[in-house]
Amino acid sequence: MWWRSSARGLKRVLWPEFRRQYAMQSAPQALARVYVTRRVPPDGLRILRQSGQVQFELWDSDDPVPRKELLKRVEGVEGLLCVLTEKIDSEVLEAAGPNLKVVSTMSVGYDHLSLPELKKRGIRVGYTPDVLTDAVAELTVALLLATSRRLIEAVEEAKTGGWGTWRTMWLCGYELNQSTVGIMGLGRIGVAIAERLKPFGVKRFIYTDVAPRTELASKIQAEYVTMDELARESDFLAVCCALTPETQGICNHSLFSKMKKTAVFINTSRGPVVNQEDLYEALSSGQIAAAGLDVTTPEPLPPDHPLFKLKNCVILPHIASASYTTRNSMSALAANNLLAGLKGEPMPKELKL
Ligand SMILES: NC(=O)c1ccc[n+]([C@@H]2O[C@H](COP(=O)([O-])OP(=O)(O)OC[C@H]3O[C@@H](n4cnc5c(N)ncnc54)[C@H](O)[C@@H]3O)[C@@H](O)[C@H]2O)c1
Question: Domain total for the chain?
Fold first, then answer.
C-alpha cells in the first residue's frame, strides 16, 4: 500500500492512481517514492508521513519482506528504509534502478549492505549509531551477569524442584570484582559497556582493535593489547567489533584455546564473528566457563541447535537494542537520515563510503 502525507492525515493511495492524479497537476507535484521494508516503530513512520516530502510504501509486517517481493517493490524508488535482515546488494540495487539516491538502515551495523556497490552508484547511506549505544551496553551487562552468575540455570532449578537446601558451592559463578575485562573492538558500545562495568570493581580493562583508540580508551583507562593477550588475560571477554571480512570467524578455536578455563565469553556484536562449532567445543569441553550470546548464525538459531543444550550457554534472540525508547529513536533517526539524504542535505548520521 502507498501512503501519502497530507494535512488531513493519512491517505491510502494506490500508486498508478496516485501517478495519474499527480501527473495532471503542475510541479511541485513529485513526492519522492520510498520503500520501507518493515513495520518500523511509530516515531519513524510519523516523521515520514508528516514530512510532506515522500510517499512511501511499507511492508506492514513484523516479519521480513520476502526477497522476491522486495525486488519487485523497490523498482523505481528514490529512497529505501531497511532493517538488518535485508541484504542490500547489487541485485536489489539493480532492481531499484537509477532513481535510488538513499539507503537508510535502522541499525548501526551495516554488514548487510554492500558498500562497494552503493558507492559505485553514488547512493548515500544513513545508519543509526549513538542512539542505541546505552541500550546495547545495558543489555550486554545484563547478559554478562546472567551468564557469569548462572541466572537462567538458577531460575530453572528454583522452578523445577532442584532447589534443595542452601548448599555451599551450588550454582557458584564468577564475579566481576577484581577481574580483568577484555573488549574486542573498542568503539562506542565497547566503551559504554566498560563504563557500566567499572563500578562492579573491575581491576583492569584491556582491548584490541585495528589500532589503539587512545581517546576512547582513556575514558576507561583501558590498555591496548594483542589478540593473544586479550585471550589469555581476560576473565570476561566482550565482543563489540563490527562484522567485517577480517572479523568473520575471529572468535574460533585459536582464541578459545588460549582463554582461561574460568573465562566468560560474551557476544553482542554479530553472530558470524564467532565460529559456533569451535565455541560449542570450548564450552562442552570446559575450555572456557560460559558464553552469553545475543547474536548467532543463523538467526533465529534453530531450537534444536546443540548450543541450546548447554547449561553454560545463555542465548538471547538479538534484543540488545530492544527498549521502547531506543527502537523509536532508531526509527526516527533512520527516517530523518532518509529525508535529509533525499533533499541532498547532510544526514544526521551518514556513513562515509
Ligand atoms: N546485538 C545488537 O542488537 C546490536 C546492536 C547494536 C550494534 N551491534 C553491533 O555492535 C557493533 C559495534 O557498534 P558500535 O556502535 O560500537 O560501532 P563502532 O564502530 O563504534 O565500534 C566498532 C569497533 O570495532 C572495531 N573493529 C573493526 N574491525 C576490527 C578488528 N578486526 N578487530 C578488532 N576491532 C575491530 C572498530 O575499529 C571499532 O572500534 C556494530 O557493528 C553492530 O554489529 C549489535
Answer: 2
